[in-house]
Amino acid sequence: MEAADPAPPGADSVRRGIRLARRTYPPRIVGLALGSLCAGAGMYQADAPLWVWCLMLVYCAAWPHIAFQISINASSPFEAERRNVLVDSFAGGIWPVAMAFNLLPSVLLVAALAMNNYSIGGARLFLKGVVAHIAGAGLAIVFLGLEFQPESNFLTVLLCVPFLLSYPLVMGLVMHRLSVQLSQRTGELLLEKRRADEANLANTRALSEAALRDDLTGLFNRRHMQELLTQQRLACQRSGDRFALALIDLDHFKHINDTHGHATGDNVLRAFAEHVGAAMRGTDTLGRWGGEEFLVLFASSTANEATQGVERLRHAVAAAVVATPSGQALTFTVSVGLTEHVSPESVDALVERADRAMYQAKSLGRNRVVTLLAAPQV
């Protein structure tokens, strides 16, 4: 009266086999008790020998407990329980012969055992159960002979009613329990799958985000900034809007590295990213262009509109302080070249003009912003 439960190898097989043995223990006790009423009614009607009565009563009383001990103490409880089920089938072949094949109790017992075999082991165990039925019947015929009295009197029918009513109820309860367990397990698997999918998605997003970032500063890297500039250029060509671009270079950065070491230079780059990032608007985008050069993209802004933002960034950098290995408080400045995109010029042309503006800021004494616009188109 249990659902098929294939036995995987190893410790899991032992645990599942023991669970199967525990699940079949109470139904086997109840089933044999009620089955003894059916078989006893048929045997009484067929006037079976006393020793057969004794055999049946001892079997029905002792076998459930013996079968349970065999299963839980076996090295492979699952296989042991399958063998126990075949013993049930073998005994189930004896009692119909002892009842002279009284139709109602014989059909009830054989049908119940066949259903049990199929539910535990599928078609293979069902067929083995049929063979066990035949073997039990053959052995019984050897000792009892073959008689055929299929008619069931009223007493036999009456004593078969408890089994007839209870067995479907027990099967229903077992199937309901398995359905609930299956539903719970399905829910658990779906929850586990959803969590795994969410974790995989988070990992994918994290990896994708990491691929866009500069390892040292955490800012967008050059490749991603190029993509953003290309997207912004195409969007502005469609809408007719403009956008501004600032190229920022740290002043005397080589001197900082040569004097204080590359570790201090790295700290300066991190401090720049932190202070500039804190001073930017949410619509602006900052990225590392290479070395000590950085780009700021001002979406939907002209160079004139972006000037105030660039000056704010420059002052934020000037306020930054980095400690050197000797304990000195190091400050630094930046030179900025500012321009704006003029459709339909390329991204390379835009960056090249910002670069020229930045070098003009260097030549004028550094720590300043120079704006360079494209020549008016005739």
Question: How does this model look, in words?
Answer:
- This protein has about 375 residues and is of the alpha+beta class.
- It folds into two domains: about 10-190, no CATH class; about 220-370, Reverse transcriptase/Diguanylate cyclase domain (Alpha-Beta Plaits, 2-Layer Sandwich).
- It is about 70% helix and about 10% strand.
- It contains ten helices and seven strands.
- The chain has helices at about 10-45, 50-70, 75-100, 105-145, 155-210, 220-240, 255-260, 260-280, 305-320, 345-365; strands at about 245-250, 285-290, 295-300, 320-325, 330, 335-340, 370.
- The chain has a five-stranded mixed beta sheet with strand order 2-3-1-6-7, sandwiched between helices.
- Helix 1 runs antiparallel to helix 2.
- The radius of gyration is 44 Å and the shape is rod-shaped.
In a few lines, what is going on in this structure?
The protein is an alpha+beta fold and 378 residues long.
Number of helical stretches of at least 4 residues: 10
Radius of gyration: 44 Å
Order of helices and strands: HHHHHHEHHEEHEEEHE
Strand order of the largest sheet: 2-3-1-6-7
Task: Determine the strand fraction and express it as a percent band.
Answer: 5-15%
Q: Could you say which overall geometry the principal axes of the C-alpha atoms support?
A: rod-shaped
- The end-to-end span amounts to 93 Å
Count the strands? 7
pLDDT < 50 runs, ≥5 residues? 1-9
Largest sheet report: 5 strands, mixed
Mean pLDDT: 87
Instruction: Indicate the structural class.
Output: alpha+beta
Counted up, domains total 2
Helix fraction, binned, reads 55-70%
